[in-house]
Structures are given as structure tokens and as C-alpha cells.
């Protein structure tokens, strides 16, 4: 439990203010909106961005400044530390997810329609529950967290991992339907795509990236002799 709390304390950094500001802006945009935007923008596109920011914040202490040789002397498994930070990054998104969902429901009661292709008996455009929203979106969160953490650990730099994560998010956002059945965002998937297969693939990519990052982190010799701090 102590190790889990230690990773949680990593959230108490300057970058946490950026997360708080982002969440407040999202909530404010919901409160002042006259017409509802598709809930997809909050459930997937906006929350994936939050997952990337949380991943960077959790590693700010270890992969910024001149702390990396101390990182090598971390008195516990570095692989375990990477996994715990990945779980915390997902936890940050899951904490804020109900917050904006409740605000959305309060402001636009009965107006959540979401799924663009049939899934688990839910037809296109049909009302969905909060659980449906989470089930559809969590694989995207996992993929964004995994990619960000893997690049961050491989490059030993927070800002490179964040650039990779934001670049991935921007690429997926700009390409939209052009990515076909491999799109991270479900509203862009073609009608004949298996939503379950798409979600499993992205969840798998996220978990594989975390495993790769954990393996790289555990090689302690990588963290010794780094002389060009961020």
C-alpha cells in the first residue's frame, strides 16, 4: 500500500495544475453550452487527452531534472513502479469521468446518445448508460497511457513521452474516419467494423506498451550516467 501511495504523491506536482485547469475548462464548457456536443468529445477525445497528461505528471519526479541516477537506486521493483503509475493514470481519468458525466446529464437530461455502430444490443444513436460509455472508452485510455509511458521510459524524458502521446491523439483526431477500422475513436469506425475486436486490440496495445516500459525500466543500468537532464 505504501508503494501505491508513493506513486499517488507523484500527482502533487506543477503539472497537476495543468490537469486541474483542463478539467475545469471542460466542465465550464459543459455548463455554459447552449446545445450539447456529442458526448463522444468528452468520453473519448477529451478523456484520452487527460490520460496522456496524467501519465506525464506521474513520471515528472523521476524523469525530469537530475533525479535519474536516484531512479536507478529506487528501493523496489522499477517494473512494478511503472505498472502502478499506469494504473494511477487510468484512475485519474476514472475519477473525473463520473464528474463530467453527471454535469452532462444535469445540463442535458436524456440527451446522451452515443454508440455509432451496433454493440451489445445497443443500436446506433440509442441512449446509453454511464457503464456503456466507460466500456467503450477505457481501451482508448489504456492505449494512450501505454504509448505515452513506453515512449517516456524509452527516451528517459517526460516531454518526449508527452509529445508522442499528444502526437498520437492529434493524429487520431485529425484522421478521423480516414483510419477506418483501426480508429481509436469509436464514432469514426465504419459500420461493418467489429467494435469488440477494435476495443480489444487497443486495450492489448496499451497493456503491451506498459509491459515493454516495465521491462525497460527494470534495466537499472539504463538510468546510470545520464548527464543531459531535461
Task: Please mark out the parts with pLDDT under 50 across 5 or more consecutive residues, or reply none.
Answer: none
**Overall strand count:** 0
Shape: globular
Structural class: mainly alpha
Q: How widely separated are the two ends? A: 30 Å
How many whole angstroms does the radius of gyration measure? 18 Å
Domains, number: 1
Biggest sheet character: none
Measured as a percent range, the helix fraction is 55-70%
- Tell me the strand percentage band: under 5%
User: Helical region count?
Assistant: 9
Keywords: Membrane, Transmembrane, Transmembrane helix
Transmembrane segments: 12-33, 39-59, 133-153, 160-180, 200-217
In short:
By secondary structure, the chain is mainly alpha-helical. Helices cover 67% and strands 0% of the residues.
Amino acid at each position: 500500500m505504501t508503494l501505491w501511495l508513493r506513486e499517488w504523491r507523484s500527482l502533487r506536482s506543477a503539472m497537476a495544475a495543468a490537469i486541474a485547469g483542463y478539467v475545469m475548462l471542460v466542465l465550464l464548457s459543459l455548463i455554459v453550452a447552449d446545445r450539447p456536443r456529442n458526448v463522444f468529445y468528452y468520453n473519448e477525445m477529451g478523456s484520452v487527452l487527460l490520460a496522456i497528461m496524467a501519465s506525464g505528471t506521474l513520471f515528472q519526479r523521476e524523469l525530469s531534472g537530475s533525479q535519474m541516477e536516484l531512479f536507478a537506486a529506487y528501493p523496489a521493483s522499477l517494473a512494478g513502479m511503472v505498472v502502478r503509475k499506469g494504473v494511477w493514470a487510468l484512475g485519474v481519468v476514472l475519477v473525473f469521468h463520473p464528474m463530467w458525466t453527471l454535469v452532462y446529464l444535469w445540463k442535458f437530461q436524456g440527451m446522451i446518445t452515443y454508440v455509432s455502430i451496433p454493440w451489445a444490443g445497443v443500436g446506433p444513436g440509442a441512449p446509453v448508460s454511464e457503464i456503456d460509455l466507460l466500456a467503450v472508452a477505457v481501451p482508448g485510455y489504456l492505449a494512450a497511457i501505454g504509448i505515452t509511458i513506453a515512449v517516456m521510459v524509452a527516451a528517459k524524458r517526460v516531454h518526449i513521452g508527452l509529445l508522442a502521446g499528444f502526437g498520437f491523439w492529434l493524429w487520431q483526431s485529425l484522421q478521423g474516419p480516414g483510419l477506418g477500422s483501426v480508429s481509436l475513436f469509436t464514432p469514426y469506425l465504419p459500420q461493418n467494423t467489429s467494435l469488440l475486436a477494435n476495443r480489444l486490440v487497443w486495450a492489448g496495445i496499451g497493456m503491451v506498451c506498459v509491459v515493454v516500459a516495465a521491462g525497460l525500466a527494470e534495466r537499472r543500468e539504463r538510468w546510470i550516467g545520464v548527464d543531459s537532464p531535461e
